[in-house]
Amino acid sequence: MQMNQVLAVGTVTESGKDERRCYTVEEVMKILGIGRKAVYALIRRKEFPAICIHSVGYRIPKESFHAWMFQQEV
Question: Which of 5, 6, 45, 60 fits as disulfide partner to 23, beta carbons 3.0 to 4.6 Å?
Fold first, then answer.
């Protein structure tokens, strides 16, 4: 039986499936349909939590991002 490995941004399950807990800036761009500068502006305004990993970039936790997204008015 293979043990689960905990990664910096998610976990790998016993089946080997990657269950990441964070989005990249590019993924948030696609979800919201906005550009890179707009995502960075949201991060600067602290609209949702983002983790800065200096050599990698920002990571946005999925759970808090979804909570923010569903609170927005259409």
Answer: 60
At 35, which amino acid appears?
G
SS3 25: helix
Backbone φ, ψ for residue 4 (5° rounding): -70, 140
Contact between 59 and 50 under an 8 Å Cβ cutoff? The reply is: yes
**What are the tens digits of pLDDT across the range 28-54?**
999 999 999 999 999 999 999 999 999
Give the residue carrying structure tokens 């050599």.
55
Q: Which two tokens stand for residue 39?
A: 């995502």
Alpha-carbon gap, residue 15 to 62, rounded angstroms: 21
Q: What percent of the chain has pLDDT over 90?
A: 69
